[in-house]
Hints:
dioxygenase activity, alpha+beta, 25% strand, Phytanoyl-CoA dioxygenase family protein, oxidoreductase, nine-stranded antiparallel beta sheet, Phytyl_CoA_dOase-like
Amino acid sequence: MNVTLTDEQWRTYEQQGYLKLGKVLSDLELVALAQRINHIMLGKADCDYDRFMMQREAGEGHEQSGQTVGFKGSTLNYRKIENLEFDSLFLLYLQKPLFREICEKVYGRDTRISCFRAMFMNKPARHGSVLPYHQDRWTDLDRDPLVTVWTALDPATIENGCVKIFPKTHRQLINPENPSGFLTPDQTNQLLGTMEPVNLELEEGEAVLLNNWTVHGSEGNKSDFSRRAFSVCYMDANTVSSAGKSFSVVFGSGALQADFYINKEVKAN
């Protein structure tokens, strides 16, 4: 597993707007995180559900729910769960030294780092929403977050809706008027007319580093297997939200601290 990035890897990332990081989870960590998120979805986790933003996917006789605080029933059919920096296992993972190095390279060595969102994303078997092409940005922030680390908890394949990207699209905003960075149908068709998207197929435990402006999206899940993933968007902790939202510091002074070790959680379950 990589513990640092080479100069060549950085050049590739800067040129392409993405970089496959390879396997970043040990077998023990992968089992623990996959087990932990299932327990959270099933309501079996000893955690504060009032801290999590949770969205249930359509299916099992339910429509897709809104993404709001709190538990929405015992099911593996969740689409998103946010604020996972408040779960010790996921916090331990997102604070890996490799990710700190990435943040120092992008934001500067002495910059405190927050996470804009630490989010579980799921495409349940034979379900899973289509995510239209977009660039990650939020106009209520006084500066754009720059990097995201996307980690596969299941194999991510074309059949189950892996992320698709357009390399080198990170150099400018395509639709700056849209507050969430989504492309118009005409802009999407124009891109598709000039290049083929890259399918980011990953084995479980592998991760990819994404520039937030790199255009990406995904299809639904046509397979009998889930596509679970964990995504962390890192940003300068000095970022201010016009809505007054606060963000958790994960690197630097005042950073969140995990309250147990990963082997303890595995033994407990």
